[in-house]
Each structure stands twice: as C-alpha cells, then as structure tokens.
Amino acid sequence: MRSDQVKKGVEHAPHRSLLKADGYNDEQLKRPFIGIVNSFNEVAPGHIHLQTIARAVKDGVLAAGGTPMEFNTIGVCDGIAMGHEGMRFSLSSRELIADTIECMVTGHCFDALVFIPNCDKIVPGMLMAALRLNLPCVFVSGGPMLSIDKRDLNSVFEAVGARKAGLIDDEELAEIEGSSCPGCGSCSGMFTANSMNCLTEVLGLGLPGNGTIPAVYGERIRLAKTAGMLVMKVLEENLRPRDIVTEKAFENALTTDMALGCSTNSALHLLAIAHEAGISLDLHMINEISERTPNLCHLAPAGHHHMQDLLKAGGIQAVMKELYDAGMLHGDCMTVTGKTVAEAVAKAENRDKEVIRPIDNPYSKTGGLAVLFGNLAPNGAIVKRSAVKPEMLKNTGTARCFDSEEEAIAAIYDGKIVPGDVVIIRYEGPSGGPGMREMLSPTSAIVGMKLDTTVALLTDGRFSGASCGAAIGHISPEAAAGGPIAYVKDGDKIQIDIPNYSLMLLVSNEEMEERKKTMKLKEPKELTGYLKRYARMVSSADKGAILEF
User: Is the pTM of this model over 0.90?
Assistant: First the structure.
C-alpha cells in the first residue's frame, strides 16, 4: 500500500507514534488510508451540511474495511462573494484548492480518496487535483438546494433590478429574499456548481445521482455511504482517474453539457481539468460538438425547471441515454462503478419528456453553449445561447463602455442603459481583474428591468451560471493584454450573430490600428498577496485560466 511509507517497518515507528496520537490503533493502521477531502464550511449553504455527508462516507469506508481520514479545503460561496472584491478570489481559489489537496495527499501518503465538493470552483479544483494525483478515488457532492415555487438565487438578483426600476416594492423584495434559498445545497438551477457536479457524473468519477439528488434527501446520505464503500473496490482494482477520464470521456462531457445547457463556466473548467489529465481541448471543439448536439433541457436560468425536476425525470443517466441511443456518446468509456457508459445508462428512463426533451423534439437543434469568434474576440468568447431570448440571437447595438463592474452596475441602476445598448465591461479578465469576476448583478439587473430583449452585455470577465440573456463573456484576449475589447469606444456598433458564432466590432482595421497608437491601456492595479502572484501567472480564458509557470 502507498500508506506503507508512513506506517510499516521499524523506521516508521515515529510516524506510527504520531498517528496513534490521533487515536488510531494498530488494527486501523493496518488498513488502507482513505483520504476524505471535505470542503465543509459554515459560510456557504452548499457546504454547511457536508459534515453529514462526510460522516456517511466514513461509515461506508469503515464498513468496507478502510481507515478514513478527513481533511478540509477552502470553498468560496460565489453568491456571497458576488459584486465586490471577494469575487476576485473565486476563480483563483480553484488553483489553491487543487494545490492544497496535492500537498495534503502527498504529505500523508493516502491510498485512495473520496472527494466531497459542492459549489462552483470546488468541484473543478478537486477534479484537477484528482487527475494530477491519479490515485483511486470517488466523488460525491453535497447535492443541490431545493427550489420552492420555481424560485432560486437568481430570483433575488433579478428582484433587485426590479426594485431599482420601481417594478416591485420593499415588501415584495423581502418576501423573495426570504423564500428563494430555502436551505442547504448548491443553488437549485443549472448554474455552475450543479453543472460541474453533473459533468463529474458524466466524466465517470461520480456515482449516478451525484449531480441531481437534493442535499436534504435521505438518498443523498445513502449515495455518500455507497461512495465510501465503492472507493475500497476502486482501490482493490487500482482503477485510477486517468483510466476513466479519457479524451472520449471529455467528448461525452461536452456533448452532455450541450444537451443540458450547462453554465458558461463549464467551458473554462473543462479546459483546466483536461490540462491536468494531459489532454488538449480547445474552444473550436465546443462549437463542433454544439453544432451536432440538440439542447434537451431548459433548466433555470434558461427555463423554469430545477435540479429536483431533472432528478424526477430520470437524472443525468436519462439525458445520457437519449444521447447514447442517438449515437452521440462513446459507450465504451469506463466509470468509477466498474461499468461502461453503455452499461450504466442501459436501464435509464426518461420519465418527463418536457424536462428532458426526446432527441427528436429538442428545445433547439444546437447545444446550450456557443463560442463566438470575430475581430472583437479573436480567441473566442462564450455565451449560454439556450438562455438568450430569440430576438437577441442576432443583434446589432451601440457600445456603452465601462472599465469595471462597479461602473456598469451603477449606470444600469441609474437608468442610463437604454434599449439597443451593448454594455461593455472590461478589465475584468483573468489577469486584468484579476480573478475574472462574475457579472451576475449586471445581467440580473438588466433582466429585472425588462431590458433583456433589447440590451446585450459583453465582458472579458465571467458570468454566473445563473446569468441569462445575451451575456457574452470570456472575451479573449482580455483588455489588460491589449485585446480589441480595450479599444472599443462609446457609440461603436457591435454585431452579435450567435447562430453563426460571430462577434464583430464594426470598426475598420485602420481605425483600430490608430486607436492602438493613441489609446492607453488601463494601469494595472496595485496588488498584494495571493492575487499578485495569481495575476502574474494566470493564462487567458481561452486556455481555461490555468496557471502558467
């Protein structure tokens, strides 16, 4: 066993002494050491219950003859971090999570691992660590929050816009505030956390139900116990993440992503996860898959269905069954259960053909995400087209430029944005932000003010998975790197053509060259600590915002 390095032989008596100080006895030290990687904290509602999940996992490990040892990672709640400096530490925490897990696992010689993530950056951070370490492992998330009366966190953000526009009063805002997030779990729509937990299931490292079983269901506890028991079998068979998460598995994940209409952040994270696996993905591949994959689900924010509805309809396995039967998935990919994808989905059933549209009756013939290219985004930009109003799929509008999220949101709340405007928020990229902040507040304000059929928003930052409307992010190169978005001026015409994957600034090449000579880039921020290091090392969004050394 790998753990023999710290427990076997005369020379490791000091190591055993320290482990005995923890309370482990000789019998426990003979068994495999199973690291329980828990992202519990008392801040994020997606993580506040993870001690219960961890306890169930440990019960499963103990029942199967292992010795569980729990340690924790950080976990930033994107919703609480939204709209202020804290959001700069959201995406950047992904790398910290992967690095700290690597430190703990390598330092203590675990034999196998059970990962317990739930929210936005924690899931990809743990997946990156799993592929980097390549030890036998199983993932079990904390599960999604319930939705009551079709409300979710996005309902509150949109209500702020409605209140600013005078469409609702304080009493109605307070009622929405108090009822939209009813309890523990990751926010209830197909936002980033649930997108990534569902895709973990598709990649093969999570059990069926990992992405959809609500946090408060007893079924979630049973799943956690199963994960704890299963990791011992995975260890015995020496089945490792890189045996499972192959290039074909990523193709399956991207295909299912398009069918589900996952968060735009999934494109960012899948690139980073693939990098850790030594697999090359690029944004053009996303369009190729999107072009041939129908969008089968309209979960919030694209529609009014939530994760509990998807579970009831048959879950991710039912979505995959629709795709597999249509010849769109690689059925020979292995999963952590020991079954192939074909075997895993064989008995899946679509029990609600509105929540999961059949392959011959999709919400759209193309996938939920699109990557746009053009002179404004030479290296690409991401949009969740399944959440864009039909009238905004093709649109030409007038640029209104802002050099920060704060400037833009103030203008939106003050009623300075009018129909036909294209809001440009720049210097919010991976390095220039730094941290590539999410723009949920501006997009929600636009929706809440009933401007989402006439106003688009473009940024080199990101969007929450809860964002909807013509919200186009990840514009690369970013403004801080001298990308074209840095040289857009108020009054310029912007042409958006999502069906044809195009994003164009209607300014001549000659004019752009002149602007590059006369317009100065914004001075970099004075940074300290972690963000200073992060800004220096982070790559562009089209590379997954990975760190380059």
Answer: yes
